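Sample 1 of the test manifest.
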Amino acid sequence: MTVGGSAQIVLFMVVLVAAAVPLGAYMARVYSGEPVLLSRVLGPVERGAYRLLRVDPGRTMDWKAWARAIVVFSLVGWLALYLVLRTQSLHPWASYGLSGGAKFKSAPWDVTFNTVSSFVTNTNWQYYAGESTLTYFSQMVGLTVQNFLSAAVGIVVAIALIRGIVGREGKSLGNFWQDLVRTILYVLAPLAGIGALVLVSQGVLQNIAHSLSVTGPTGLSQTIAQGPVASQEAIKLLGTNGGGFFNVNSAHPFENPNGFTNFFEMLLVLVIPAALVLTYGRLVGSRRQGYAIFATMSVLFLAGVVVAYAAEAHGSPAQHAAGLHTHVLAGSTGGNLEGKEQRFGIAGSALFDVVTTVTSCGAVNSALESFTGIGGAIPFANLSASEVIFGGVGTGLYSMLLFVLLAVFIGGLMVGRTPELLGKKIEAKEIKLVTLGLLMTPLSALAASALASADHDGRASISANAAATPQGFSETFYAYLSQANNNGSAFAGYTGYVNSVGNLGAHTSYRFADVLGGFTMLFARFAPIVFALAVAGALAGKRVSPAGLGTMRTDNATFVVLLIGVIILVGALTFFPALLLGPIVQGLTGHLY
Amino acid sequence: MSVRRDMLTSVIAVLACTLVLGLGYPLAVTAVSQLAFKDKANGERVNVSGRLAGSKLIGQAFTRQLVKAGKPQVDANGNPVTAPDPRYFQSRPSATVPPDNAAGSSFSNLGPNNKVTEQAIAANVQAYLQLERRYTPGLSAAGVPVDAADSSASGLDPDISQANARIQANRVAAVRRISRAAVLSEIAQHTDGRTLGVFGEPGVNVLELNLALNRMGEDA
C-alpha cells in the first residue's frame, strides 16, 4: 500500500460526498414535483410525454397497480430487446466492427435469453463479448435503451417505498409513469449526456466506423475495434448497469483510457446511489435519517476497500511461487498485477472493483478472477450483503430500507417496545413481507449455485484451469451470486456459450448456464420489487404516532451500529458456509491447486 | 382492462425511448464528439509517414514473425509464430489470441492459487530474462517488475512501468547503438504521470516510445 494509493481513496470519498449532497437535494425536488433549474426547458417535454403515453400524472396508484405496471413495462422491454438482438444480420452497420468486413450474425436463443434478461433486470451479465458478438445497432438501440429503463425502474421503486413510509393519505404511492418520465428526463439523460462528453474528451471512443487495420513498426498487422463507446459507457456506469461495450469492460483502454477516467467512472457509478440516500432523508423530513444510512454504507464500503487494497498490494501465492518479488519498487506498482492494467495500478483497480460490487454495477477494470483469495472475498462479501452498501440505483436504497425495518424490529424486541419507523408501527404483516423480500436474492443465489455445482452441464462452464479446484467453485458461486444480485461482474473464466475470446463455442451444454442464469436474474429482480412495493403499500395507510420517550431513534450512532450488525449477521448466516469453500480457503492457505 | 392500458402505455414508452435514447442520444453524442474531440473520439490514431501505425491507447506486440526456409511460420491454429524484436521496447504479456488482439479483448482469468498461474508467470519471467539478461547482467526473477511478468487485464495495455522500461533501455540502447542516456530521456518524455498528480499510476507508452526511437534513427 502506498501513500499515493491511499490518497486516491480518501479523495474519492470526499468528492463523492461533495457530489451526492447537491444531487440528493435536486432529486428530492424532482420527486416532490417542485420546480428545478431544468424545468423551464424540460417541463413542456414532460407534459408532452404524458400526452404521448396517455397517462394522467395526477392519477395515483396503489402498490398493486405499481407492481402490475412494472411487470408489464419490463415484459414489453424484454420482448423489444429480444427482437433487436435476434435480427442482427438485418441491422444497419451490420458489417461494421468485425475484421475483414465480416457480417454479424445473431447469438443463439439461449445466449440472447440470458443477455436480454440481464439487461432488463439491470444486471448486465456478459455471456456475450461486446466487440465480437453485437452490432453497433444492438449496442445502441438495444442495450443502451435498457440501461436507461432498468435503472429508472430501480429508482422509482425506491421512491415508491419512501412514499409508503411517509404516506399520510391512504394507499397511494404516486404515479409510476410520472416518476419514470421524471427519472429519465431530469436525472439520467442529462447526467449521461454530460458524462459521455467528459469521457470522450479524455479519449473514450465515440464513432460509427469500420474497425481499423494498422501495421506496426515491426510489420505486424493489428485490427482495432471501433464503435459508439462513450454514450453507452456513461449510462452503463450511471445506471449501475455494467455491461461493457467490449469483452473486458472498463479494463479496455477505449472504455477507460487513464487514471482520471477511472476516477470519474467510479464517481458516475456511486453518485446516484449515494445521493438517493440523502434524497430519502429529505423526503421523510429528517435529513439525519439519510445521514445515518449514509454512514452505515460508508463504513461497510471503506472496510471492503481497505481489505481489498491491502490484499492485492501483498501479491498472490502464484506470483511468489514463480519467484516474483511483489513489494513496491521505484517505478513499479508491485502487488498482484495479474489481470490489472498499469495505468490503474493496485489502488485504482481495488477501489474500482469494490465500487462496482457494492453497487449493482458490475463493471470491472481488472479481472476479479485473478484477485487474491482475500481480495476476491470482498466482492463476494459485498454481494452477500445483498448490495445494500450504496447498492444499485434505487435497488440499493429499497433493499437497505428493508434492512432498516428489520433492524428496527430486532431493536424493538430487545428493548421490549413496539417497533416503529418514523412514527409508523411495524407489525407482523410488514415484518413478514420484509423478511420474504430480503430472502429472495439469497435463496435464488444459493439454489442456483447448488444446482450448477451438482449438475454435469453446469460444471462444463467452469474454466479448464480451475476445474476441480476451490477456484472452480468460486467461479460457479460468484456467477449465480452476481446474477441473483443483478450485479453482473464475473469471475470470468466461467463460460456461457460465448467463450472468452469471443468465439461462439460449439459446446451446447453451456446452454444450462445461460438459461439458469437468465431465470435467476428475472426471479431475483422482480420478486424483491413486488415485496418492497407490498411493504410500501402496507405502511402507506398507517397512522403516524408522535415519538415518545421510549421510541428507539433511527438517526443516531447506536442505530448505525445495530444496522451494520444486522446486515453482517444476515449475510454471514446465509452465505458463510458457501464462502468457506471458495475464496476463504484460498485466502487462508498459500497452497497452489 | 388495466393490464391492457399498461400494455399500451408500455409499448408507446419503449418505442419512444428506443428512438430518443437508442438513436437520438448516441448519435447526438457522436456528432458533438466528432466535431469537438475528433482525435480522441476516433481512438488517438497514430500515423507514420502517412500510414496508420496504431492507436496511442492500444498496446501492440513488437515482435516479428519467424521465417524458416523462406516461409513465415504459423502454429497449429494458423496464428503467426513470433519472437520479440530486440530493437523495440516490449509490451506487457497479453492473454488474448494472438497477443494484443484489439478485435477481441480478453482477461487471462488465471486464479491466485493455481499451478497454471504459477507456470504462466514463470514462463513470462523466463522469456523476460532470456531477452534482457545479456544487457542487464545479474538480473534475476526477483528483479523482474510485476508488470513484465503478469498479463494485463485487457490484453491491450499500452503502458509498461518505469522500472520495466529502465531495464529494457539497456537492451534497446545496445542493439540500436545509441547512448543509454538518450533512451532514458525518450522514456521520460513518453511517460504519462498520474493525472493531476493523483489519479492512477505512471506508465510508459510503448508504441510512442518505439516510434520516437525510430525517428531518432532517421534524424541521425
